[in-house]
Amino acid sequence: MRRNLFPVAILHSDGEYAEVVPQLVRLAEAQDLIGAGESVLIKPNLHMEQHWTTGGTVNPGLVGALIEWAKERGAGRIMVADGPYMSHPHPENVFVETGMAEVVEAQGAEWTAMPRGPYRSFDNASEHLPPRLEISELVFEFDRLINVAVMKTHLDCQVTLGMKNLKGCISSANKGAFHYEVPDINRAIVALNRLMTPDLTIVDGTLGMEGIGPGTGTVANFGHIFAGRHTPSVDVIAAAAMGFELDEVPVLKFAREQGMVSPDDIRVVGEELERIRRRFERAHEAMLRELPGLHLCAEGACSSCKLNVIRALRDNVRAGGAVPDCCIVMGKTACEDGEAIFLGKCAGEQAAGRPHLPGCPPRVEKAREFLAQFAARE
């Protein structure tokens, strides 16, 4: 008997989303997703005030096309919501600065920043999650959840696609805990995906990001978009299109081990995967290329802290400087090196009188000044 396979759609995309979205949804067998009067929550990737042309955030045009499609299907209330990086002081700015707020309002839909709450608590849901996990109540309040990610590489997880995008729905405290309290952020993401099940996941690679993602990489003009109703399956195909084997991506490896996904259960429709596949530069490869001589100890540091420090280092190098010739410590990494320097709130706990720049995360401009003091000299 033929198995009921999960369809994952791949289409060429040049950013004309009004034309692409209906085709994409039909190929993904999700055209009946929304019933008359049903409420729809769209969760894009808006991790920071970063324009979509960088490949770092979702193109508002895609969200606008999804809103239009949902309205044509008879949707009732439509809201766009996300939570940026942890401890962001003004999360609404992300919607305004990226242009998302303007597009959503023009379509007559609503938008909100998830950190404004409320949250639903899950106590002891998994050994891989914080003891108390808080997920935005919006996820459960709406009838349908559409998960919209950008195709990007990632410092900690190799890639950030549909499964990782759901991390934006948890509280700021939990985002930090995923990096420095739980045993493994990748296993935590898998466990989170057992508590949240999007009705449709889209990974947009029209413009993606490679190298030092999720916020400091290079624009990848990939020109394709992916969609399916089973998030892990969408991620397997999108990661393969980026040149990753399944076991190279810890989130997908663990998801397969737990029976959440299998390549044998996926049916690719639309474009042929092998025809479009290309290798994205990995984060560690870009760091070696752009920051030669870097000695970074950042176990347990969150990506916000690491990305700000890497931005500062890269700015200094591009201005003619050099990376420090000592160990740069972030997070809770134990370091006995007497010449080490420390950045970030967590690292300050073990600086023990050695040079330390506070901040959660440290501001880029402050990090540039601090790191320049220790630049390697001839």
What does this structure look like?
By secondary structure, this protein is an alpha/beta fold. The chain is 32% helix and 21% strand. The protein has 14 helices and 16 strands. The strands form 3 sheets. Strands 1, 2, 3, 4, 7, 8, 9, 10, 11 and 12 form a 10-stranded mixed sheet that branches. Strands 13-14-15-16 form a 4-stranded parallel sheet. Helix 13 links the parallel strand 13 and strand 14. It starts with 5 loop residues before the first strand and ends in a 6-residue tail after the last helix. The mean pLDDT is 94.
Instruction: Please name the CATH topology of the largest domain.
Output: Rossmann fold
Residues in β-strands, percent: 15-25%
Q: Which oligomeric state applies?
A: single chain
Number of strands: 16
Low-confidence stretches: none
Assign the CATH class of the largest domain.
Answer: Alpha Beta
What's the overall average pLDDT, rounded? 94
Number of domains: 2
Which percent bin holds the helix content?
25-40%
Short description:
With 378 residues, this protein is α/β, with parallel strands linked by helices. The protein has two domains: 6-276, LarA, N-terminal domain (Rossmann fold); 291-372. It is 32% helix and 21% strand.
Please render the helix and strand layout as text.
Blueprint (H helix, E strand, L loop, with lengths): L5 E7 L4 H11 L12 E5 L15 H13 L5 E5 L9 H6 L2 H7 L3 E4 L5 E5 L8 E5 L1 H4 L2 E11 L3 E3 L1 H4 L6 H9 L4 H11 L4 E11 L7 E3 L3 E5 L2 H11 L8 H8 L8 E5 L2 H4 L6 H8 L5 E2 L5 H16 L9 E2 L11 E3 L12 E2 L6 H9 L6
Parallel strand pairs: 1-12, 2-3, 2-7, 3-4, 7-9, 13-14, 14-15, 15-16
Antiparallel strand pairs: 1-11, 5-6, 7-8, 9-10, 9-11
Helix pairs in contact: 1-2, 2-4, 8-10, 13-14
